[in-house]
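Bump. Still looking for HSPB1 associated protein 1 structure tokens.
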Amino acid sequence: MAVADSRGRAAPVLISGQVFIFDNISGEDVKPFTPEKTREIVMSLQQPAVFCNMVGDWPALHWDVKHLSAMLDGKTIQFRIGLKAMDLVPQFETSCSYVKATLEEFLAWSSGQPSSLSGPFSCFEHSKYWAYADYKYIARIFEDKEEVFQDVRWSDFGFPGRSGKESTLWIGSEGANTPCHLDSYGCNLVLQIQGRKRWHLFPPGDTSFLYPTRIPYEESSIFSKVNVANPDLKRFPEFKNTRAHVVTLSPGQVLLVPKHWWHYVESIDPITVSINSWIELDSDHEARVEEAITRTLVCALKSAESSSDGDPWLNPTEVEATSHEVNLQYLNQAVSVYFKCQKANVSEQAHRSSSGAEQETRAPCKRRKRQVSCEPQDCQLLNHEFSSSTFKAEELQKIPFGPHLVQVLPQSQETSSLGAGAVASDDRDLLHENEGGHFGKLHCTRKQLVMSNDCTTPANQMDSDSSPNALQAALSTNDLLDCLVNPHVIRLVAQLLLERARV
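Sorry for the wait, here they are.
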């Protein structure tokens, strides 16, 4: 996809080497889909897709970095700093540096102005580092300017009452990225405002090929051990079986990321700005039970380790390792809410069918730490019981793909079979192997030596200098955790636990 104009119109889409301009000839204020139809698409579609010509009249489209800088008026926000050099290991948040700076300083640094104007960024050479102000809740950074919440209008997507207050802001420089992960809760709507971002998406069925891990730990995020932009196929040979869907999101376009789709996101322009909102789903109640089990196990095992191990297992987004007593209390609350909402949903669904959609005014569900409420209104979530395995071909055919809803197809899809409503992954963006091995073993720590001995790695694929003793290295706590809190295991444990609580 190429860049749309500054007002989010005429979004060009690259299909089989040709550029098609999809303009809203009926007028800027006319949406291609009604809010009701858009909501139906969001709640039923189980593969990623891009909405075009839906936000042309949103004031938030003017939220480029200069405009945001004026809005913040010198207020500092935290930026994550990472290396542009590509390693074989994902650049998790635990391995990044952090600075607090103004957007004026970020702009000065990004544009190559004198270091005296770039504040704390002056310590980082722009050619070697990227900066990312990620997960910035609009309700927090603009708490004294609540009127700007209405610049974001998710009501156009069928979620009345949802605005910037329930949305998150992302500001990055070229190269800024989010490690590959899936979100435990909800589905995701992402509006691109400035610059372009490239999304590498993988379906839930690829989970085992992505080597899931809960280290670093944060509630609601399951990370992949694989750096999908530079995969180490020696350590992670099953990654070659993944089905990557790659799409470049341009200003004015909105990406739907369905539930449990893995994603690695990178900024490919000098400055990028995007806004997203996580839409809570009915199935999140069971997911919160699973997350409570995971938190209890991770905190118990990792807290019991020697502090001298030096393993930064807790993601910076987590304030602290909570005690077993607190975690058990959270687990019981999650189980209680699950059963209360099961009962409430029976009557709520009947009420919703007669009275229409209800207002959605809850906070974004991503990283909503341990806020398990027993109030009835928190049971009024969106009914989303579809799964990718049950979403049949005839149901997919009912989705109105075309110039205003662009299907994101896997890279293996032949471009000759694409229609006007499909986007092939850009051939230039194909995931690549480490050519020539020039990255080598950059950080050969004890932990990495242990983790490289995955049982799925054939012995003949081990490094030539590996000794028999290295192959028999003791398993670490992280290895144990990777098995115990594997998503499939946690799902089974949650089901058994809910069955026990039911009787």
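The mean pLDDT is 80.

Edit: fixed formatting.
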